[in-house]
Amino acid sequence: MDRGRRVSNSAPKAVMAFPKDGSNHGQSRSLHAIAGLLIAAALVVCGCKSGTDAGAYGAANLGDCLPALTFTNQHRGQISLASLKGKPVVVDFIYTACPGACLTLTQKMARIAAGLAPHLGAGVTLVSITIDPEHDGPGQLAAYAHKRGAESGNWLFLTGPPATVEQELAAFALRRERKPDGSVDHVTGIFLLGADGREVHEYEGEIVKAGTVIADVKRIINREPG
Questions:
Q1: What is the Cα–Cα distance from 160 to 162, expressed in whole angstroms?
Q2: Does 16 have pLDDT greater than 50?
Q3: pLDDT tens digits, residue range 20-42?
Q4: CA 124 → CA 118, 146, 155, distances in Å?
């Protein structure tokens, strides 16, 4: 399997995300845009942090991933992403009708939340953003979170107008794709943002160990190098 944001074989299929070469920083990357890029370039630009941290990579997007965009959370509250700055944020993209990869990501995020329980809120925030806002309102997100035991007030499930969701995806240099049958491609990445809203690490969510993400977050909280 090639590194980074990859395509899932389950339906609906995943949209690509992790960039495969350094020239793509700041540009929207879809499955069709990056499928042909050389894996060799990825080995140079987006290498693993260490030989033991499978699925963990350095930041590949240098932009601000927490712009002043307003979303609605699962409790129907309004949240500006910019207001989350000041502490690390762990982000993934899901949608409630996703049959496979999104459940895996949410389970991984739940393990991350459990491992960071003493720090949630004051030290770190978890954010899951739907990429199917046409069908995922606050009620659907609240039910999804409840079913999976993800009801911490410091784990936000966010929705908003499609244009707002697409703006946020663009901040990660991603693009949403809807297939002719109406299904939405999904992203299998997990992203660790620093207090300034910029990427510190990217992870292949289906592969990375929760402990790797937890350790990286704690390093930021404790201001340790890494």
A1: 6
A2: no
A3: 333 343 333 433 333 232 222 33
A4: 10, 21, 9
Pick from 173, 177, 157, 180: which is nearest to 77 by CA? 157
Least confident of 6-15, 48-57, 158-167: 6-15
Query: Which residue type is seen at 223?
Result: R
**H helix runs in 46-161, sequence order:** 101-115, 138-147
Q: Which of 106, 123, 76 is nearest to 190 (CA)?
A: 106
Query: Is pLDDT of 99 > 50?
Result: yes
Measured CA distances, 74 to 11, 51, 93, 167 (Å): 25, 38, 14, 20
Alpha helices of the chain — where are they, by DSSP H? Answer: 31-34, 39-45, 101-115, 138-147, 162-171, 210-221
* DSSP string over 169-185: HHHTTB---B-TTS-B-
pLDDT of residue 52: 54
How big is the chain, counted in residues? 226
What CA–CA distance (Å, rounded) separates 189 from 154?
20
Residue 148 in tokens: 């999976």
